[in-house]
Amino acid sequence: MIIERGTKEHCQEAIELVRNFHKEALSEYVLKIDEDNLIKFFDKCVAQSFFLIIDGKCEGIIAGQEIINPVSGEKIFQETIWYVNKPYRRDGVYLFYKAQEILKQEGYAAMVMICLANSKTEKLIRLYERMGFVPIEYHFIKRL
């Protein structure tokens, strides 16, 4: 099992993971996030992403982007996609830990994770809390 920064070598496999993430987590959301636009976004942040490589194949990703806190000037990693193929879901936690380790080494001050409101929300909140994350805000949305 290898964790690496996003590379062109595994990009096509990672795009399949983005498609799976869209189907599993976003297809019913009020924002109606288009799969093609999600892939375009991912293309822009491949280099800042983390790939979980098992037996030479990308089986999981954490994708996001660097943002600079406008008040403190600190570098923050904002996650947008965290997805691991079903047979390897337990390895997704290893991916998560390694991503944090790498970000810290690269001088990031914080990592922000998204928690979508769906059937897995409570489980994900408990995982984030066990890993030392604290909630910072809740968002509500209504389609106009």
Automatic annotation (TrEMBL):
SUPFAM superfamilies according to UniProt: Acyl-CoA N-acyltransferases (Nat)
Limits of the N-acetyltransferase domain: 1-144
GO MF term set: acyltransferase activity, transferring groups other than amino-acyl groups
Database matches in InterPro entries: Acyl_CoA_acyltransferase, GNAT_dom
Pfam families linked: Acetyltransf_1
Record-given protein name: N-acetyltransferase domain-containing protein
Native organism: viral metagenome
